[in-house]
Amino acid sequence: DFITPEPIRFVQEATIWYRCANWSEKDRILIFTTEEAQKCNWQDGGHCDRKTKKPHEGLQTRLQRLGLKVPFRSIPIVPGYTTEQIWQQFNTVFEVLEEGDHVVFDITHAFRSIPMLALVVIHYARVFKSIAVGGIYYGAFEALGPQYQVEETIPENERRAPIVDLTPLAELLDWTVATDRFLKGGDTALMGELAQRSVAHLLKASKGADKDAQAVKNLGNALKRMSLALSTCRGLEISEVAKNLKEQVAACAQSDLLPPFAKLFDRIQQRLHGFSGDPIVDGLAAVRWCCDHGLIQQGYTLLEELLFSAVLLETGHDIQNREHRKIVSQAFYILEKNCVENPDRWKDTSNNHLDMTRRFIDVIRSKGDLYKKCSQIREFRNDLNHAGHNPSAKTLKSAGRFAYDLQKLISDVERILVPLS
């Protein structure tokens, strides 16, 4: 909040006095004016004092009196009464923004559609030109009451209207995008980044002692780790990452530091409900997450590796042993090719570990048609991993079935494995 030394007629003058006093010749102030605003507010004499009839100074003169180093100018803009004019306004504002600009907006004295347009332009420019928003301000003169009443009852030197900081609306747009990414794509990384950014100033001010802010920071980190674990198929760590995210969500559920995030807590908890701490159940939950959010290639990769882990866990072997995983993979392949009784057709790794290979084959056989499911998963995984460069690959026309087939395979594998996990 700030108070000008004396009442100022133009909110833009007050905002510039407050925010731009230290700006240099390298910065710039741009005032968008319609033809009417140019005559009535930018130039001198557009309005007169009702009592003395003395012409008022325009905003151009008022800014000159501030003696700022930063250059300023007015830019013509259409009123915005039609859809075509609104697009013209959009282009006018967007074109003057430069890559990496740090922007302060004042949207006072504008047609009613301007605040909405400003938010759209800001959001668009943040994506396409990487601008940063330093502030969005609105001078709420109407908070003093109707103009005729203000002029009759409030002395001129006491008419101080509040300037409302609308910057959080730009942040809310970020949360909207982050929410969309999460609900449609399962991507929690942007939510994590926004959560951490929202409490950075509190942590800095408290030197890390603010427990609520620290909890939000931890939540942000957990969200980013969850997204990274799934997108990069970190199968060994998914259970622990999901458990940690559950804990961090619970720790922040009652926090008032993240108003935009509040409605997402239930959604996140619903998505995490399938993670129970059991490695097989959690593995299937991770695959289902991938399937539900378009991470199809990751889903097939995680699902095939989960089958190998399930056999190794049941036989008491280390699931991180690369050679053992290779032997399990070959055991599935031996069953698929129906060459259990023909070791001469086995690969060297299997032949060098006959007892282990036969033990794995017995376990896989005990699970019905699991080896057939593995064969399907392997085929689809190879198709995806090799970018369709094989004669039997799905065409683009039928590629949509990858997700459908994955969903069915998840259900089939769950039916076989979960009762035994």
Describe this structure in words.
This protein is mostly helical and 421 residues long. The protein folds into three domains: 155 residues, no CATH class; 96 residues; 142 residues, no CATH class. The protein has 18 helices and five strands. The strands form two sheets. A three-stranded mixed sheet has the order 3-4-5, sandwiched between helices. It is elongated and about 110 Å long. The protein starts with 10 loop residues before the first helix and ends with a helix. The model has no long low-confidence stretch (mean pLDDT 91). This is TIGR02221 family CRISPR-associated protein. InterPro entries: CRISPR-assoc_prot_DxTHG_CS, CRISPR-assoc_prot_TM1812.
Set down the secondary structure blueprint:
Layout: H1 11-19, E1 29-33, H2 35-42, H3 59-65, E2 72-76, H4 83-96, E3 102-106, H5 114-128, E4 132-139, H6 147-153, E5 163-165, H7 167-185, H8 189-206, H9 211-231, H10 238-252, H11 264-272, H12 279-292, H13 296-314, H14 322-336, H15 348-351, H16 354-365, H17 370-385, H18 401-417
Most strands sheet: 3 strands, mixed
Mean pLDDT: 91
Structural class: mainly alpha
Structure annotation, total helices: 18
* Radius of gyration, in angstroms, nearest whole number: 32 Å
In sequence order, what are the helices and strands, one letter per element?
HEHHEHEHEHEHHHHHHHHHHHH
Poorly predicted regions are none
Helix content: 55-70%
SS elements, strand count: 5
In total, the number of domains comes to 3
User: Which word captures the global form?
Assistant: elongated
The end-to-end distance, rounded to whole angstroms, is 60 Å
Strand fraction? 5-15%
The largest sheet has its strands arranged as 3-4-5
Protein name: TIGR02221 family CRISPR-associated protein
InterPro entries: CRISPR-assoc_prot_DxTHG_CS (IPR013383), CRISPR-assoc_prot_TM1812 (IPR011742)
Organism: Desulfatirhabdium butyrativorans
